[in-house]
């Protein structure tokens, strides 16, 4: 259990200790002076260093893109491909040996991103008639090895994005007859891919892979799974439980159970649990709203609708209050760690 | 700094006896006297939930009014909204319990939506409407103890103040709004904590975040006004003096930050900061975006507010993209300008490393 004494000093609590006469005015002033202390010089150094690196690299990259945009038509196809290839090889080579630093990571990410335009130029040069989904699939396949070797979360998130785009384009161009006939199946498939990727990530972190310890990537993957699933479930509810959308609630149940198991028992991650709680609140609120509307419609009583609307508002408030109390008071189980 | 370290320091300095330190530690460990802090993602969830519940409540009240009275006038609707808002404040002040606090937030949200609807239907001018919201928002920031409500009221209040200035003095509306926002932001960031009473200290964090968001939105408005003014050659205010206002605010911020380390504006870091500000102001060509985002980023870092740092960085990048995109140059020249700018920044970084300004502990 986390000792509150190891938590950061907070002004409100400092004042409360003073108001409860547990500390005197001098102690209050001393504590307040500590709160006024600016960040350490080392923190400023890191901040300025990263800001200049990020902005400088972004500007140089943008300038290169504008250069190619200006000269693109004048360059021959082979020169276009050659220049992109040189940029990719140079960035990847420069990243070698520096992958533990932000510079190396930014270079490899840049090289990975440039593979896409290279494939685009290749596709327009050699008109194979392939569908666009093939470009994204090839992009993913060609850069997969870098993601495996580099072990960078950003590269793996890019891989998952490419898989999602490939799947959605494949469905639109090959399976469905038109954009409007896609239905929800490709989105649920994409959600399943994102959910599976998230579970694999958590498994890797649990197995001890240090590079998987950060929480932004698994939370992003879970969000990518939840959004389509929750949307489909809400449509299923509002569309009188149409079987076309029945996969949504089934997947929602699986994801919620998994999120609870991971976020509560394997690692105390309030971010994961907050997302799962929000998903549950949205779905149950949709159910309540639907039931309230149907009851009021059937009864033909407007005052009943007023009452039920007020009840819906109260229940949303109660659910959010319960969820936030639970999330705030959670403590790690046994020797599980708490995520930052 | 954590509590353990602070209590040890207080004992060492003689401000606390060891027994008093133990008593304070006991109070800190008691969850009934020191409830755990609410994580930021939970606060976001609470804020969204409150407004959803507020919409249900609003729908309920409006339907009720519609059923009871044939044509409820704006005065009745506004009065109903004020009643709900007052109830929300009273409940929230009376109890810190989570469910009642959440309910109070929802009722308050419904009340504010009703007030807004009632005012729209009233005979008030746009300026009068906005002035009501400035007064209401100020009162809510001062009285309502909920940090989510304080944040929302800060943003609404500053936006409404901008509308008031726009109606009263359109030629300088942007500059006046920026000046007020910057002054409040600098005060909220650099006011010594020791001089603040408990009630004011409690509103500092949500007020500061609300002011950062307001500053970013106002500078976004300035950028949009510059684009619209060029497109339509109309009387849309151009925020012409905005870089001057922001430049002065940045100088004050630099002065306060450097003073905390025993340095002045005349020192090397101070000179570098001033040169950067002047260059950005000149490059911005009268647009406030880059300077506004830089000020927001600086105060967010001083306050150690990660959410505000993220927002400010995103706006800085966005304004930078817009600046370069809008340059009236050929693609060839633009590519040179971009690469040159990037090389300058990387060279400055290398120079700072060479001078050991970016060495840890320097």
Can you tell me about this structure?
The complex is a heterodimer of chains A (340) and B (362). Chain A is mainly α. Chain A has helices at residues 11-19, 25-36, 41-71, 77-95, 102-125, 132-150, 153-175, 185-206, 216-238, 247-266, 270-299, 302-329. Chain A has a domain at 207-215 and 234-340. Helix content of chain A is 76%, strand content 0%. The longest helix of chain A is centred in the first third of the chain and has 31 residues, at 41-71. Chain B has 362 residues and is mostly helical. Chains A and B meet through helix 1, helix 2, helix 3, helix 11 and helix 12 of A and helix 1, helix 2, helix 3, helix 5 and helix 9 of B.
Structural class of chain B: mainly alpha
* Basic shape of chain B: flat
Strand content of chain B: under 5%
Main interface by residue count: A-B, 92 and 100 residues
The parts of chain B where pLDDT drops under 50 for at least 5 residues are none
Terminal CA distance of chain A reads 15 Å
Count of individual helical segments of chain A: 12
What's the helical proportion of residues of chain B? over 70%
Mean pLDDT metric of chain B: 84
Mean pLDDT of chain A: 86
Biggest β-sheet strands, sense, barrel of chain B: none
In sequence order, what are the helices and strands of chain A, one letter per element?
A: HHHHHHHHHHHH
Let me know the number of strands of chain B: 0
| Number of distinct beta strands of chain A | 0
Oligomer: heterodimer
Distance between the amino and carboxyl termini of chain B: 21 Å
């Amino acid at each position: 259990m986390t000792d509150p004494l190891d938590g950061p000093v907070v002004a409100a609590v400092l004042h409360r200790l003073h108001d409860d006469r547990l500390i005197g005015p001098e102690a209050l002033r001393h504590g307040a002076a500590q709160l006024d202390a600016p960040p350490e010089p080392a923190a400023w150094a890191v901040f300025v260093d990263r800001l200049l690196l990020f902005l400088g690299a972004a500007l140089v990259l943008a300038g290169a893109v504008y250069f190619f945009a200006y000269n693109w038509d004048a360059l021959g196809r082979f020169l276009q491909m050659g220049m992109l290839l040189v940029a990719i090889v140079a960035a990847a080579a420069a990243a070698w040996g520096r992958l533990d630093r932000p510079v190396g990571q930014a270079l490899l990410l840049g090289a990975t991103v440039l593979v896409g335009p290279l494939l685009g130029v290749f596709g327009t040069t050699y008109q194979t008639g392939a569908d666009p989904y093939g470009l994204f699939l090839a992009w993913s396949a060609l850069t997969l090895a870098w993601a495996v070797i580099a072990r960078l979360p950003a590269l793996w998130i890019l891989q998952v994005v490419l898989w999602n785009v490939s799947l959605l384009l494949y469905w639109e161009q090959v399976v469905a007859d038109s954009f409007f006939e896609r239905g929800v199946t490709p989105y649920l498939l994409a959600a399943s891919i994102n959910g599976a990727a998230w579970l694999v990530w958590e498994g890797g972190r649990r197995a001890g892979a240090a590079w998987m310890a950060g929480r932004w990537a698994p939370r992003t993957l879970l969000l990518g799974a939840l959004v389509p699933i929750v949307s489909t479930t809400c449509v299923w509810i509002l569309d009188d439980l149409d079987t076309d959308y029945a996969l949504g609630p089934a997947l929602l149940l699986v994801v919620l159970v998994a999120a609870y198991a991971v976020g509560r028992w394997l690692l105390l991650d309030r971010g994961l649990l907050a997302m799962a709680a929000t998903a549950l609140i949205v779905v149950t609120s949709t159910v309540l709203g639907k039931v309230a509307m149907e009851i009021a419609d059937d009864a033909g009583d407007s005052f009943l609708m007023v009452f039920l609307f007020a009840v819906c508002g109260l229940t949303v408030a109660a659910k959010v209050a319960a969820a936030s109390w639970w999330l705030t008071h959670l403590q790690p189980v046994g020797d599980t760690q708490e995520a930052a | 700094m954590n509590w353990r370290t602070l209590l040890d320091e207080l004992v060492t300095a003689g401000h606390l006896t060891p027994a008093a330190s133990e008593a304070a530690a006991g109070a800190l460990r008691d969850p009934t006297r020191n409830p755990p802090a609410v994580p930021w993602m939970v606060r976001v969830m609470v804020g969204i939930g409150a407004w959803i519940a507020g919409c249900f409540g609003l729908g309920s009240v409006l339907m009720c009014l519609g059923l009871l009275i044939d044509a409820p006038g704006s005065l009745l609707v506004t009065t109903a909204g004020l009643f709900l808002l007052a109830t929300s404040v009273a409940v929230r002040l009376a109890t810190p319990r989570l469910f009642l606090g959440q309910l109070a937030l929802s009722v308050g949200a419904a009340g504010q939506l009703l007030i807004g609807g009632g005012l729209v239907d009233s005979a008030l001018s746009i300026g009068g409407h906005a002035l009501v919201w400035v007064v209401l928002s100020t009162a809510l920031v001062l009285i309502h103890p909920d940090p989510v409500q304080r944040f929302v009221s800060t943003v609404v209040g500053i936006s409404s103040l901008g509308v008031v200035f726009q109606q009263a003095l359109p030629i300088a509306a942007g500059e006046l709004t920026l000046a007020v926002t910057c002054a409040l932001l600098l005060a909220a960031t650099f006011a010594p904590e020791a001089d603040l009473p408990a009630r004011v200290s409690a509103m500092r964090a949500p007020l500061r975040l609300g002011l950062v968001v307001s500053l970013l939105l106002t500078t976004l408005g300035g950028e949009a006004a510059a684009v619209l003014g060029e497109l339509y050659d109309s009387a849309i205010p151009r925020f012409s003096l905005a870089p001057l206002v922001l430049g002065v605010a940045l100088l004050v911020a630099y002065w306060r930050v450097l003073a905390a380390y025993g340095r002045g504006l005349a020192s090397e870091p101070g000179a570098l900061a001033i040169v950067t500000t002047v260059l950005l102001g000149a490059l911005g060509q009268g647009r406030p975006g880059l300077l506004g985002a830089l000020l927001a980023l600086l105060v967010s870092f001083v306050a150690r507010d990660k959410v505000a740092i993220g927002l400010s960085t995103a706006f800085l990048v966005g304004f930078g993209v817009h600046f370069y995109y809008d340059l009236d140059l050929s693609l060839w020249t633009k590519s040179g300008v971009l690469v040159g700018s990037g090389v300058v920044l990387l060279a400055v970084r290398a120079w700072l490393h060479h001078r050991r300004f970016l060495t840890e502990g320097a």
